[in-house]
């Protein structure tokens, strides 16, 4: 993996339930040892600095992508990607998943 190359991932429902779906609230790259985080999606908004992208092709999957970047002093250390999702009901008129964030 080189700096600037795109990294792709997705969150998928293991067991879909009719009328229930989800969206990604936030995703971060986390340096495992220190716990330092860098959000590439926050408040449902992709971070433009790392060309983050968010796509929702269907109710069972949310896809994301971002350009590879480095934390200060993180070379050779373990990092992980962690996402928080928001579960939504298609029947809820105040459904937060239906509201488009102002990114």
UniProtKB/TrEMBL annotation:
InterPro entries: ZP-C (IPR055355), ZP-C_dom (IPR042235), ZP_dom (IPR001507). Signal peptide: none annotated. Keywords: Disulfide bond. Gene3D superfamilies: Zona pellucida, ZP-C domain. Residues 1-103 form the ZP domain. Pfam families: Zona_pellucida. This is ZP domain-containing protein.
